[in-house]
Design a protein that fits this description.
This protein is α/β, with parallel strands linked by helices. Helix content is 28%, strand content 21%. The chain is built from seven helices and twelve strands. It is elongated and about 80 Å long.
Length: 281
């Protein structure tokens, strides 16, 4: 019979002169009553994989499993992104570390082109196990992400980041119809500022040429880690998995690497305004 092992992050703590406790993966300490089971034998079973020495050790180990503090090792599995395809495009200083992190979690990473994204946005080869990640070390050129915003409607997930001056923004992952798209983020940001005319002009390209600052190695690693966390949330099993990541806009200050998070919701569609003279008299 396969021995149970302590779950990742869980442990048994014995204070000098005190009684043993279970430290959960969340950092809580729970009183451990082993009854007549030998603590040393229980520890060897849960840590070293030694077979349960008697029925009492097996009973306490089973209780660990029921409470989620112990697991039975299964066949060797890949990372959390095993079976997923991550298509990356954009600036290599950002996509490079992201591709490495995703591959380390088991993903198949591929480089894509805007033309490939356009075909996926039209439903050609789209699939629920694929995510497109587009990273820009500059403001988003007008219209560049319009086609990609249609990806979730065809079942392909959509994640992105871009830089505006000293701030790099990671936008929410969109995985299904009704999720937050890049167009939604722009509308929400315009609504949140009194300088909406200036911000819209900045996005439209009515500005002096971009002069950085470009993200350094540490900033690129940080952004790649944040995006990978969103990918892991997307790949988590269960209904509604990764929903927080699909409603979260982050701003990374490249000068001191501080990260601020802002909740953002999709913008519901609205009916067009009636034409002049088309309404009732």
């Amino acid at each position: 019979m396969t021995s149970s092992r302590l779950a990742p992050g869980a442990g048994i703590v014995t204070a000098p002169g005190g009684r043993p406790a279970v430290r959960t993966a969340e950092g809580e300490f729970l009183h451990l009553d082993t009854g007549t089971a030998d603590l040393a034998a229980l520890t060897r079973h849960l840590v070293g994989g030694e077979a349960a020495s008697d029925a009492e050790v097996a009973r306490v180990a089973a209780a660990f499993e029921r409470e989620g503090h112990a697991v039975r090792p299964g066949p060797e599995e890949g990372g959390a992104l095993t079976g997923r395809t991550v298509l990356v495009l954009g600036d290599a200083r950002l996509t490079g570390p992201l591709a490495r992190y995703a591959a380390a979690e088991g993903a198949r990473t591929r480089h894509a082109t805007p033309q490939h994204v356009g075909r996926l946005a039209d439903g050609e080869g789209a699939g629920a196990s694929t995510v497109v990640v587009w990273c820009l070390d500059e403001p988003v050129p007008p219209g560049l992400w319009d086609a990609a915003d249609r990806l979730p409607a065809h079942g392909t997930a959509w994640l992105r980041c871009h830089r505006e001056g000293a701030h790099l923004w990671t936008e929410p992952l969109a995985a299904a119809p009704g999720d937050v798209t890049s167009a939604h983020v722009r509308l929400r940001r315009l609504a949140a500022t009194s300088a909406h005319r200036q911000l819209a002009a900045y996005w439209a390209g009515h500005r002096t040429p971009d002069n950085g600052p470009h993200p350094g190695e540490a900033a690129c690693a940080l952004v790649a880690a944040l995006l990978t966390a969103d990918l892991l949330a997307w790949a988590a099993p269960g209904p509604g998995s990764g929903l927080p990541a699909r409603r979260r806009l982050r701003r990374v200050d490249l000068r001191d690497l501080t990260v601020t998070e802002h909740p953002v919701l999709p913008v519901p569609p609205v009916a067009p305004l009636p034409g002049r003279g088309s309404g009732p008299a």
